[in-house]
Amino acid sequence: MKKNKIIVVRNLSKYFKKIKAVDNISLDVEKGSIFAFLGPNGAGKSTTIKMLTTLLIPSSGEIIIDNLDCLKNKSEVRKAFGIVFQDQSLDDELTAYENLDFHGALYSVPKVLRQERIMNSLQLVNLSERENDFVKTFSGGMKRRLEIARGLIHHPKILFLDEPTLGLDPQTRNNIWGHIKQLNKEEQMTIFFTTHYMPEAEQIADKIAIIDYGKIIAQGTLAQIKEKSKSKSLDEAFLSLTGRSIRDENATSLDRMRMKRRLRR
Amino acid sequence: MIEVIYVMWLRQLKRYWRSKARLLGSLGQPILFLIAFGFGFGPTFQKAGGGNYIQFLAPGIIAMSTLFTAMFTGIEVVWDRRFGFLKETLVAPVARFQIMLGKTFGGASVAVIQGTIVFLLTLMVGFRPSITLVPLAFVFLFLIALFFTSMGIAIASKIEDMHAFPLIMNFLIMPLFFLSGALFPLNGLPKAIEVVVKLNPLSYGVDGLRSSLTGMTGFNMVTDIVVLTVLSIIMNIIGSLLFSKIEL
Q1: What ipTM does the predicted assembly reach?
Q2: Which residue range forms the structural domain that includes residue B50?
């Protein structure tokens, strides 16, 4: 495998009965880069992330993470990444500290080191003063920040973020992206994220991939994607590539036709 | 591995200890049963030559509260799935069976604590156990807890519906309790009922508890221990398999 690629995906598919949630996608993520994975609702983003993070078994295809086969070396692969899920995954009835401590124990971080890392990550997301408060007393933004802090306790090489800024106010979003950029710069951590806020992807990502109806329809740098769709902004590019109709989980036949046409182009 | 089981166990105990409402609320039913049945049927039982009914009933009620608490450990799996925390444990670099074991021991410990509290309550209502075999009684308590916690988690692994779980549990718990010899002696039962009682794992737990606490015995304690141990191991394996198959 090429050394500088930390995530390599080849011909990956996932079917749920007859629905092709992810349809033969391939992508590469370079070590230390920030990768944005975009797409309308129901396009296959979360399914892809679940497969990359070993929570779902692919129907076919290959995933190599940090030079390890994702299907054969589950445990090793799991140590290599941290993940912030789309919806909350903290224990409300435990304190912030306990949540992080629990995580550290699951990832077999030694006790002393664990304490030190918990303090550091809490500091990074400005939650040091709340370490002994129950998570149920936290606001949405604080919970998000705590989840990011938790994802860092085992010092992963890759951080997956599934819509990390969903439903947060601009201040918190800004703050969270600040933390993420800092991690990428200082720790050379690879970041793989999804979002619906195009300006976020525009500002922060080195590479962008757009998925629609389970297929990757554009991949490359911001400039390449804008050029491909002859658009001035990513927002415009996104809409011109994926169409303007509102998506349900299942696409209409008209959408599918337009999709096929676009791929032929 | 020990560390994983330990943190899972610790989380369970912390959650139990912090929820005083749950702790107190789950004592209501055993107390009601103890008082209503104990004092309601007591005189009739005595007249029929069965002796002191509280003495007979108390081990059954202790077993019942352990059964309830153990089975409802499963609901935490359903909640964890619903509220997302399950993802955090499933994506961690540890084998699923370790997570399942930790959860089982955690749930079983809580159930044993709950059983112990009810045990203390029965003493206040007039239950007088023989002291010598009390440690053995705790072995039975633990085995009951282990078996039914595994069963609760096994069922929860297959059920995603938060509302369905308590209904299914009640549907199972009631027959398990009523047909276990917790309320009535095993001798002289109609054949059909006797078969059902003998097929009910809780019967062996109730019998073991009753034998060790009062000396009244139906099967015998060796049978009780062997049956419960074997069943607990089998149920734990089933639970681990089902739990490890969970996909999100």
Answers
A1: 0.84
A2: 2-244
